[in-house]
Amino acid sequence: MTDDHHEHDLSPELTEALEGIAEALGRLVDPVTGMPLDETEAEIEVGYDDGTVFAGVTLGYPCGGLAGQWEEMAQEACRPLMEKAPLVGSELQFDLFFEAAGTEAPDHSETLAGVKQIIAVASGKGGVGKSTTAVNLALALVAEGARVGILDADIYGPSMPLMLGVKEGTRPEVEEQKFFVPIEAHGLKTMSLGYLMTEDTPAVWRGPMAGGALQQILGQTRWGDLDYLIVDMPPGTGDIQLTLSQKATLAGAIIVTTPQDLALLDAIKGVEMFRKVEVPVLGIVENMAIHTCSSCGHKEHIFGAGGGEKMAESYGVCMLGSLPLAMSIREQADSGNPTVAADPDSDESLIYRAMARRATAEAWLNADDGPEIEIV
Ligand SMILES: Nc1ncnc2c1ncn2[C@@H]1O[C@H](COP(=O)(O)OP(=O)(O)OP(=O)(O)O)[C@@H](O)[C@H]1O
């Protein structure tokens, strides 16, 4: 697509050269999806003004961490054209943009109207590090350039207030007697059952009532404009999880597992549950997969290597990545400053960021194929 802003003053040679630039950009292979831009819904815009070629690529997932790589790829692909008449002597200014695809959700309440995609983070069983992963993935999306909210729907142990360093006893503001205002932490809009529970209430929220409570908290929070709302689901694959998946129009689900056989079997149940309700599984995260010895740095697959990968392959889902069992991940989460917020360029943070890009890229590709899924 050629920007027609200045087209009337462009010579036919210049117009042709700019079209060549657009074509060269269209052939670039997106490092995250592995697809040439031409085969995706990426938008390419090219314009020219006073010795500068302006080129922009808009992707459907946030990708700020790869902006430098894109710049190099674009400059290299366009160089042959930039070195030839009529562009020789001009400069190429390249910009990478992001625009999340919206999920059509006519049944959504007004509070969710500004939310483009809801993504669930789930696990087949408890204790695999689902909440830690959900929080770090949400922060990773912020680091990549998205507006993100997170709903802690873990009724059995809402750990988010602690993990995000929200002071005990902080309660969300209530507007018009029925809307919660999310609490901001580390650049995220957050809402948790933990903000509403007191020592006496947990029992009331659990069990059969929980599904309704979650539904209510999801719909009664004024999320505002968000690219992604991450829902940290309760562990397991029972009725509560199913209800939430059916009632909210989910753009996709991410499943967290550890590499042990039993956890993997439970993760398979998770994949099957989402498939049953036609929610696309965006991928599997393998957590606590490798142990690094804190004194000698030796790395070991304590539960055996490749379990998550094999499972992902045999179920036709994407393996988003593996996280090590790392003292830093636990300590940072437990002290209210999760890894990606504490050190966005550490090795572990880069893994979370790559996984976040890949998962949202999957959601983008899914949004392209055919009709939106709507379950009521
Ligand atoms: N990769 C990791 N390395 C080290 N510790 C981790 C890692 N991931 C999570 N943990 C730690 O494991 C514990 C359990 O994690 P978390 O609360 O995220 O699990 P969960 O699956 O959400 O649990 P539940 O289902 O009980 O809510 C926490 O103390 C957390 O800090």
From TrEMBL:
SUPFAM superfamilies: P-loop containing nucleoside triphosphate hydrolases. HAMAP family: Mrp_NBP35. This is Iron-sulfur cluster carrier protein. It comes from the Bacteria. The keyword ATP-binding applies. It holds the Pfam family ParA. ATP binds at residues 124-131. Homodimer. Belongs to the Mrp/NBP35 ATP-binding proteins family. Keywords: ATP-binding, Hydrolase, Iron, Iron-sulfur, Metal-binding, Nucleotide-binding. It comes from Biformimicrobium ophioploci. Binds and transfers iron-sulfur (Fe-S) clusters to target apoproteins. Can hydrolyze ATP. CDD domains: Mrp_NBP35.
